[in-house]
Write a structure and sequence with these properties.
Length: 257
């Protein structure tokens, strides 16, 4: 009897919304295909973890190779759950930014996540991209709107020409918060359990709404169907794994000449 071969789990997911653009690289990593041991098993791409840096370097090399990005052309930031946005044309790791934008061909930009929301944006008309990290603070502070406004100022970005992906993050049924957090969200994005009194926040829906409010057509916005908690075997979750876990990357770039 012939046995079926089983393909290994994928190291990354490519958002369908960007698949029509042959000049674009866009992906979010999973936890599969790396060399890191438990609790970082296995494709930990996070520098600020207690994993061996050599493991993270190898994992990043594998991930960049898998998505067709040249090693050494990556720009990211030490994220601080703030509102600052970096326009960059050079690779490197910068300090204190939670969103990056660029129109430099060949420069990959990205954010690290393990429950927070990654948002990737492509301005098709002006050939510019953005990578945004939005936890609950970034969501309350409307970092998505701020980034789109900055893209309009920097590149002339208009909503009709934008395509966006709201990536894999903690799901609403898992993101229980206290009143000090819940009170900062509009009722549209929170659910209160009348029996327990607990509140739950839908970060994915809230950040997608910012894209819609800016004017990006709904047909040009994709939301990940996955959850870092419910799909914890495929994605890292800081909350589900009690802080001892790896990090994913969500990245985007316009291909170089």
């Amino acid at each position: 009897m012939r046995q079926e071969s089983i393909s290994p789990p994928l190291s990354h997911h490519i958002p369908a919304i960007f698949s029509i653009f042959s000049n674009l690289i866009a992906a979010e990593s999973t936890r599969h295909g790396g060399v890191s041991p438990i609790p970082f098993a296995s494709l930990n791409l996070g520098i600020n973890t207690s994993d061996d840096p050599a493991n993270v370097d190898e994992n990043r090399r594998r991930f960049f190779a898998a998505i067709g990005a040249a090693d050494g052309t990556f720009a990211s930031a030490h994220q601080v759950h703030g509102m600052d946005i970096l326009y960059t044309t050079e690779p490197g790791r910068f300090n204190g930014y939670d969103a990056l934008i660029t129109n430099q061909p060949g420069l990959l930009i990205g954010v690290t996540v393990a429950d927070c929301v990654p948002i990737l944006i492509y301005d098709h008309a002006n050939k510019a991209v953005a990578a945004i990290h939005a936890g609950w603070r970034g969501t309350v502070g409307a970092i998505v709107t701020k980034t789109l406004t900055r893209m309009h100022q920097q590149f002339g970005t208009t909503p009709a020409q934008c395509y966006a992906y709201v990536g894999t993050c903690i799901d609403e049924c898992s993101f229980e918060v206290g009143p000090e957090v819940a009170d900062q969200f509009d009722a549209t994005f929170k659910r209160e359990d009348t029996q327990t009194g607990k509140a739950y926040i839908d970060l994915k829906k809230a950040n997608a709404q910012f894209l819609l409010d800016f004017g990006i057509p709904e047909a040009q916005i994709e939301r990940s169907p996955f959850s870092t908690v419910l799909n914890n075997s495929t994605y890292f979750s800081y909350r589900a794994e009690h802080g001892q876990t790896g990090r994913m990357l969500a990245v985007i770039a316009i291909k170089g000449n």
